[in-house]
Amino acid sequence: MSTATAKNQSSGPVLDWAAGHGPVTGALSATTGAFAVATSGAALSMPPGWALAVGAAGALGHTVAGLRVRNAGRTLAFKAASWLVGAGWTTWAMTTGPLSWAALGSLTALGVGMGAGARSVALYEEAREDEAIAAEQRAIAAELSAERRAIAAEWVERIQRICHIAVRVVGVEKWETGAGYSLDLEPQGGVTYDRIAQHSVALSADAKLPHGCTATAGPGIHQGRTILDVTTVNVLADECPYPSDYGPLSVLTGLPWGVRTNGEAVPVYLREQCALVVGPTGSGKTNMIHTILAGFARAEDVLTWVIDLNAGSAGLPWVLPALNGDLTREDGKPVRPGIDWLAGTHEEALAMLDAALAIGLHRKKAYQDVLAKANTDNLPISPRIPQILLVIDEGAEILVSTDRQIKELAKKILEVIRMLRAMGIRTVLTALGATGSVLGNLMIRREGKIRVALTGGETEGMDLGKMFPGRRGLRVDQAPYQGAGFMGTPESPAALFKAWRILPNQIREITTATSDRHPRLDDVSAKAAGAAYARRWDADRTAWMRDLTPDADAGTEPSGSDAVGGGLNLSALRTESNAASPDDEILRRFRAEIDAQFATTTDPNAIEQGDGAERAAGLNLSALRGEQGPTWLPAALDAIKATRAQGMKPSAVADLAGKDRKTVRAALQAAVERGELVYRDNGPHSVYVHPDHA
Question: Which residues contact 640 (CB under 8 A, 6 or more apart)?
């Protein structure tokens, strides 16, 4: 309350304890205010009792306010006494006159006493607050063991020194696996966990953690708390076997895909989310796909569809043993394939995607009563109405391909992702790298919130900043091991993890153990899918799985009696034991004389490029020079050379040669190994270039 306000109200002393005064300014304000009120009251003949009443009210108000903030008793007593003494002096001065030496002297003494008392109670309150904090810290310290107290003190000092952030350790918890511990931190000054997370590398180095171990900060129980996970044992370097427990799972309660560095399984929730798994060659991506398929096979409410245009290799181990009758159950019943549908050709993939779209759109109409009964707009998933999960190997590359046929697949994949979330159809896409071309699709970034990056130590094409935006401190060299990488889900920020290692015999065991657990496609969906789904295991539809006939131009060499048939009898194709007979020696000498006379065995590889006359001379005995590829390869090499630095894509070469892409890709890769071509890796825009223009 200011002096002017006090004059207007004509009431008691002015003791403003709420203002930001110190001991001196507070006492000066109180005494000058009391003197002004007493002088004005005496001049205007105000009733002296008013000042005493106001002082009593002030004492009562400050006492109540002090109790609310839990002030000490001496503080409450001092403030109440100050109000009452000031009010008493004002009442006495109004009665006897405030301008006497007695009044002025007593007021001065009163002001000095108020200042000294205010300073005393302030120091006492500070000491009391410090003691309360110290007592709280002693209570926390008493709960921690000596080892944990040492860990807490070490990290408090380290974070203060490196991050320039003061933290309080609320708790230290050691992991049951013995691979590290977690600290529950409370940063001071409104600092959030990401300020500590950006110093993860420096903290790990300062703590001298082993390679593959990190100190990672994540959100705590609320925004003012941080959990710092410190790994002390490198669990990423060793293989992590897939659990031998093949018990039932559900898409609604999470499907485990691997383990964190603390040994805890990482569950993913795919009811409404899609997933993206990236990993270069050799990073363990194929093994990761089998781990994902194992979780889907164990789920009681999931049907798995797989698209793999690379000869269906991702799904064949889950299908062929059952189709061939190699697996048996104890009850003698046939074993169902581990996945519900496998597409390894472009036509089969189109049929699968068309069926998925038809199922999703029909479910929207046919299950309106189910949605209304459950009072939800998301179809209730259960074994009766299963979730359909499409695993599309290298699906991210399909979405950004410029090939006309592949673009048709990409369009349907995007429709599935965009339209069928509520009806229980989601996708898991894989890619060879976390590049801008892969992550540039808004649909992938928006719907694929479950993201896995298997690094394998590969730095090219692994932009973790794009893969996990907003997550700092992630480096490829933290996970240089096969099957190790980073995983981020909406429930847990991106952090290191290790994919389980699943062996072929485990795939067969899981297929057998879960055969009777796979749900059947509900009648509504099966009717919408039509014959394309009902006849998916027909012999003519699965013939490509058993077709072991090699391509005509695969370059395989005949053996045995097949090699002795018509044509040239090339000694380079015979073993030493076959060439050791006297007849062979005579033939060898005869050929030597013919070669010397007519130069029929000139090696084209020994002739300089551009000398066309010499290249055409003599027999082209490729058996003497090793494998040179199929008959169409020279024309393809000339076409690639004609494109100069632009190069040609494998699809363009396949169209030129009239061969399938698998055959063309194998032949081109062999040419790269022989030095006849250079492969320029650029994701979906990769091309083969002639060495002259590389």
Answer: 647, 648, 653, 677, 688, 689, 690
| Local structure of residue 452 (DSSP, 8 states) | E
Q: 417-442, pLDDT tens digit by residue?
A: 999 999 999 999 998 877 776 777 77
Residue 400: both structure tokens together: 């950004």
| φ, ψ at 331 (rounded to 5°) | -85, 0
Distance CA 86, CA 319 (A): 95
Q: Yes or no: say if 242 and 284 are a contact pair by the CB < 8 Å rule.
A: no
324-363 burial string, b = 16+ CB within 10 Å, else e? eeebeeeeeeebbbbbbbbbbbeebbbbbbebbbbbbebb
Residue with tokens 């062979």: 584
Residue 613: is its pLDDT beyond 70? no
CB of 27 within 8 A of CB of 78?
no
pLDDT classification of 589: cutoffs 50, 70, 90: low
Per-residue pLDDT, averaged over 13-24, amounts to 55
- Contact call for residues 529 and 352 (beta carbons, < 8 A): no
Alpha-helical runs (H) found in 245-308: 285-298
The 3-state DSSP class for residue 507 equals helix
Cα 98 from Cα 44, distance rounded (Å): 13
Rounded Cα distance between 156 and 166, Å, is 7
Q: Which candidate, 452, 382, 390, places its Cα nearest to that of 426?
A: 390
Identify the pLDDT of residue 465: 79
Residues with Cβ within 8 Å of residue 105, at least 6 apart in sequence: none
Structure tokens given for 101? 């030496």
Percent of the chain residues past pLDDT 70, beyond the cut: 74
Rounded to 10°, the helix 316-323/539-546 angle is 110
Pairwise CA distance, residues 575 & 577, whole Å? 5
Torsion angles phi and psi, residue 128, rounded to 5? -65, -40
Q: What is the per-residue pLDDT across 41-63, written as a single tens digit (0 to 9) for each? A: 666 667 766 666 666 766 677 67
Confidence of residue 471 (pLDDT cuts 50, 70, 90): confident
